[in-house]
Amino acid sequence: MKRALLVVFLLALSGAPSAAQQTRSDLIDTALATSDQGARFDLLVRALDPDLGPPDSLWAVGAFSVAFGLSQSGQDEEASHWLRWAAREGAELGLGPADFPAYFPPPLVDAYSRARAQVDAQAVAADGLVSSEWDWPDTFSGDADGSLEVRFVGVGDDAEAEVEGVGTLTAGQSVSLPAGTYRVLVSGDGVESLAVRREVLPGVTRVLTVAATAVLFPGAQAQAERSLVRLRQGSGGAQICSNGVAAGNGSLVVAPLTLLDQVGLEVVASDGRIFTTFDVPARSDDLGVGVLRLGDVGLTPLARSEDETAALTWALFHNGCGPVQLARVQLGEEDDGRRAVEGTPATAAGGPILDQQGRLIALGLGATSVVADELDDLLERALDAPPLIATPTGAARRSESQGGGGFPIKWVAAGAAVVAVAAVLAGGGGGGGDDDATGIIFSWPGG
User: Fold this and answer.
1) What region, left, alpha or beta, does residue 446 occupy, with left being phi > 0 and alpha being psi -120 to 50 degrees?
2) What is the C-alpha end-to-end distance of the chain, expressed in Å?
3) Distance in angstroms (rounded) separating the CA atoms of residues 166 and 69
4) Contact status, residue 247 vs residue 350, Cβ threshold 8 Å
């Protein structure tokens, strides 16, 4: 009578049964009706097969029944493995043996409460990053070992899983383990470490898939930050800041073209040095990129990536005039030297797109980027361009569009006079002028 009432109650909890639930129901119904303990365990284990559907009330009573049968046989430790597994895998059900008082006695209710408390105490945020697949047996093998395999998504081949007290597993590797609860630690260069606990059941192969979080390799961000420069305009609360990247021989900075003709622009190196003397000897309107030339100032050029198709990429940038930030981004396919960028913040324009080793894949321009190969021609032209005669403030800039076909020789010959005149004007001599001017901007012949 109790068994019949239990089945009716379970079906009521489950609602209208699907074919999969009916099969699970049939298995449990048959298991509870048999007096053969071995056959009962076999039927109950088959009813717990994940292929029959996600955990439901029928699943719960099957798991509790396995634990109850083991405890009745004096195998309390083995029963505890199944109770912890039921507590962890069926947490969303909110069901325990206490919900079936006509069938499960108080000792099992207490044992499950202890298992539930253990599982709750072990819960971590990383639990949501781990999913399981199963190779489920048709029969119960109480004395058999189980197996554990770990796979990774979202990271490269450097991740590994350490089964605490057992050893290290690489991706796809499996290990046989006695039934029990094991702590699995995922780590590796370029992987954000995490740890979870999971149960291994006798005769069951469990495959853990870990959606690990990729990070830059140790030291990669610090190295890349040495090549990141801040392009700053204005002063005080009115400052506007963007990004550029040191390149070439350490005298050049590549940056979005829209920034480079701004009046009063300053280049702030990662070590705090401020440069106001520069020119723009190379630019590409098609790519939207230009090159600032600072002279022999010893910036640290950013190393180039050896894999421009890398799947794991990050944007490095100053958050406006604030600190340096790193954001995981996704690059699209290359099209005419550009690649779309997903996930990049608005303030990341001009910052580098990095591979996992912190090397340059592309220069970020916002929703798009310019691949590193496309910058080579601009950098060569900037290195080959004749030098500019600097002004005291450095506000003078020469660009290809301003400078025509080449550097005017007559300005070189008259260099000393030009600097002298500039010094007088900057000091307020030579007649009236704009008191707010921060420097002298030369207009080259043909500009």
Assistant:
1) left
2) 100
3) 29
4) no
- Count of other CB atoms within 10 angstroms of residue 310: 17
Greater model confidence, 7 or 336: 336
Cα–Cα distance between 358 and 224 in angstroms, integer?
6
Amino acid at 266: E
Contact status, residue 183 vs residue 196, Cβ threshold 8 Å: yes
Query: Which tokens sit at 149?
Result: 């395999």
List residues bridging with 371 in a β-sheet: 362
Rg of the chain (C-alpha set): 34
Q: Which of 199, 207, 60, 51 lies closest to 131, judged by CA? A: 207
- pLDDT value at residue 2: 43
Quick check: helix, strand or coil at residue 146?
strand
Tell me what the mean pLDDT of segment 324-351 comes to. Answer: 93
Please tell me the distance from the alpha carbon of residue 418 to that of residue 384, in angstroms, as a whole number: 23
Q: What is the spatial distance between Cα 4 and Cα 402, in angstroms, rounded to a whole number? A: 92
Sequence letter at residue 200: V
The Cα-based distances of 216 to 328, 363, 371 in angstroms read 10, 18, 20
pTM of the model: 0.71
